[in-house]
Design brief:
The chain has 3 domains: 3-126, Methylthiotransferase, N-terminal domain (Rossmann fold), CATH 3.40.50; 129-379, pyruvate-formate lyase- activating enzyme (Alpha-Beta Horseshoe), CATH 3.80.30.20; 385-439, Nucleic acid-binding proteins (OB fold (Dihydrolipoamide Acetyltransferase, E2P), Beta Barrel), CATH 2.40.50. It is 34% helix and 22% strand. A hairpin with a 5-residue loop joins strand 15 and strand 16. The protein is globular. A 6-stranded parallel sheet has the order 2-1-3-4-5-6, sandwiched between helices. It has helices spanning 12-27, 53-64, 77-82, 85-89, 105-113, 127-133, 161-164, 173-185, 219-227, 247-255, 272-277, 284-297, 316-329, 356-380, and strands spanning 3-8, 31-32, 41-46, 71-76, 95-97, 120-122, 143-147, 149-150, 169-170, 190-194, 234-238, 262-264, 302-309, 333-338, 385-393, 399-403, 409-413, 422-430, 434-439. The chain starts with a strand and ends with a strand. It is α/β, with parallel strands linked by helices. The structure holds iron/sulfur cluster.
Length: 442
C-alpha cells in the first residue's frame, strides 16, 4: 500500500472536499499516515480566499518533503488559480489538480508512481462529474458538512471563487438527501449544508419526470425535507448572500426547531459606493431592511457577518459607514479582514490601494466595535439554558468545549466524556470569545 499525508488549509468547502478526497484515496487502496516523513505521497489541499496561501504552500512543500517522498500533489483553489505557475516555482510538484477534479487524484497518482508520466495538471471546472464519482463517506463525525451548491455567479470584484470554483451548480436534492441519510445512519447528529452561495440553491426535485421543470427546489424546501430525517438534531447552512434571502427562507427559520436560529449574512462594507465597486448587488439600507424583516419574522434569529476593510479607494468617511452599520446590527459573531488583492480579480488592479498601515488601523477600530457587541451578547446569555454539542476537550482536566446554536464556544467541566454529545447547559459567566456554564440534570 502506498502511504499518503495530506495537509489542508482553508474554508469549510476545503474541509469537505478534503474529507471526500481522503475517502477516495482510501477506497482506491492508499493508506493514510499522519506524519509527513512516513509518506510516499504528499498532498497539499489549499484555499486562496484570504490567506497568503501560495507563499505558505511553497515553504511547506520544502519543509515536509523527505527521502520517502515519491509524489507531491497540490490541489484546491490555489492550484486552480496558479495553474502551471506552481510547476515553475516548485520543481518538486508532480500533480496540480483543481477543486472540481479531486476525485481523479487516485488515478493520477498511480500514473506517476507507474512512471507513465512525471507531471499532470487538471484544472477543468466540470462540477457534476465529481459528485457522481465519489465513493460513500467513511469516518463519519458527529458534526458533518454536506455540499449542496458550488461556484458563484456574483463576481464580487475582490473574490476568486467564480474563477476557481466555476459558475453556480446545485446538486440534485435526491443526492443531498441520500448523503445526509447515510451520514445520520452512521453517527452524524449535526449537519451543515455548505456552498459558496448556499441560499441561491436551485436543485432538481428528488423525483423529477420529463414534464417537470429542472432546478425547482430552493434552500427552504431542502431544509424542510432534511430536517425531517431520523437522527438529525441540528441543521445549519453557510455561506449566504444578502440578495438571495427570501421571505420563505426566513419563515422556515421561525417554524423549524431543527434549524439553528442563526444566519451568516456577509455585508463586507457599510458604504454604498464601496458596495457598488465591490459589485455586491445590494446597498447598506437594503441589507439592513432585510435583517429587520428577518428579525420581525423570526425574533430569535441572530446574525454574523464578514467585513473587508481598506478596499481600494475607501475613504475614512466611507469606512465610518461600516462602523455605523456594525453598531446598528450588533452581530453575535463576525469575521473581519484587511483587503488583500487576489491575482486576476478586478479589485487587484484598481487604483487607490490603501496602505497596510491604514488598513491595520481601520481593522482595529472595526474589531473593537464587533468585540464590544460580542461581549454584550455573551453577557446577555448568563442565567439562560442552551443546547450545546460538545466537540473537543479543553486545556484543563475534565474541561469540554462545545458550540451552542449561535456558534459560540461553551465551556463546561464534566467527569464524563462529552465529545459528540448534546447537553443542556446553564450559562454562568461570559468572556469575549466564549461562555462558561454548568450541565443541567447531571
Ligand atoms: S458572493 Fe461570495 S463567493 Fe460569490 S463572488 Fe461574492 S464573495 Fe465570492
Amino acid at each position: 500500500m502506498n502511504t499518503f499525508f495530506i495537509e489542508i488549509y482553508g474554508c469549510q468547502m476545503n474541509t469537505y472536499d478534503s474529507k471526500r478526497l481522503i475517502d477516495s484515496l482510501l477506497f482506491s487502496g492508499f493508506e493514510r499516515v499522519f506524519t509527513s516523513s512516513e509518506a510516499e505521497i504528499l498532498i497539499f489541499y489549499t484555499c486562496n480566499i484570504r490567506e497568503k496561501a501560495s507563499q505558505k504552500l511553497f515553504s511547506q512543500i520544502g519543509l515536509l518533503k523527505s527521502k520517502r517522498t515519491k509524489v507531491i500533489c497540490v490541489g484546491g483553489c490555489v492550484a486552480q488559480a496558479e495553474k502551471e505557475n506552481i510547476f515553475k516555482i516548485s520543481k518538486n510538484v508532480n500533480i496540480i489538480f483543481g477543486p472540481q477534479v479531486f476525485h481523479k487524484l487516485p488515478g493520477y497518482i498511480k500514473s506517476v508512481l507507474n512512471n507513465d508520466t512525471k507531471r499532470i495538471i487538471d484544472t477543468s471546472l466540470t462540477q457534476t462529474e465529481k459528485f457522481d464519482c465519489l465513493p460513500k463517506r467513511k469516518n463519519v463525525s458527529f458534526s458533518e458538512f454536506v455540499t449542496i451548491q458550488e461556484g458563484c455567479d456574483n463576481f464580487c470584484t475582490y473574490c476568486v471563487v467564480p474563477y476557481t470554483r466555476g459558475r453556480e451548480y446545485s446538486r440534485p436534492a435526491k443526492d443531498i438527501i441520500d448523503e445526509t441519510k447515510w451520514l445520520l445512519k452512521n453517527g452524524a447528529k449535526e449537519i451543515t449544508l455548505i456552498g459558496q452561495n448556499v441560499n441561491s440553491y436551485h436543485g432538481d426535485a428528488p423525483y423529477i419526470n420529463i414534464n417537470q421543470p429542472r432546478g425547482t427546489w430552493r434552500l427552504e424546501r431542502l431544509i424542510q425535507e432534511i430536517s425531517s430525517l431520523d437522527g438529525l438534531k441540528r441543521l445549519r447552512y453557510t455561506t449566504s448572500h444578502p440578495k438571495d434571502f427570501t421571505k420563505e427562507l426566513m419563515e422556515v427559520h421561525s417554524s423549524n426547531n431543527i434549524l439553528a436560529p442563526f444566519a451568516h449574512i456577509p455585508v463586507q462594507s457599510g458604504n454604498d459606493r464601496i458596495l457598488r465597486i465591490m459589485n455586491r448587488g445590494h446597498t447598506a439600507n437594503k441589507y439592513l431592511d432585510k435583517l429587520k424583516r428577518f428579525k420581525d419574522i423570526c425574533p430569535s434569529i441572530q446574525f454574523s457577518s464578514d467585513f473587508i476593510v481598506g478596499f481600494p479607494t475607501e475613504t475614512e468617511e466611507e469606512f465610518e459607514d461600516t462602523l455605523k452599520l456594525a453598531e446598528e446590527v450588533k452581530y453575535t459573531l463576525s469575521y473581519s479582514f484587511k483587503y488583500s488583492p487576489r491575482s486576476n480579480t478586478p479589485a487587484a488592479v484598481m487604483k487607490g490601494q490603501i496602505s497596510e498601515k491604514e488598513k491595520g488601523i481601520r481593522l482595529k477600530m472595526l474589531q473593537d466595535v464587533l468585540i464590544k457587541d460580542q461581549i454584550y451578547y455573551n453577557n446577555s446569555l448568563i442565567g439562560k439554558t442552551q443546547s450545546v454539542l460538545f466537540e473537543k476537550r479543553g486545556k484543563k482536566e475534565n474541561q469540554y468545549i462545545g458550540k451552542n446554536v449561535y456558534l459560540q464556544s461553551v465551556v463546561v467541566e464534566s467527569k464524563d466524556n462529552l465529545i459528540g454529545k448534546f447537553k443542556e447547559v446553564k450559562i454562568t459567566s461570559a468572556a469575549e470569545n466564549s461562555v462558561c456554564g454548568e450541565i443541567i440534570g447531571e
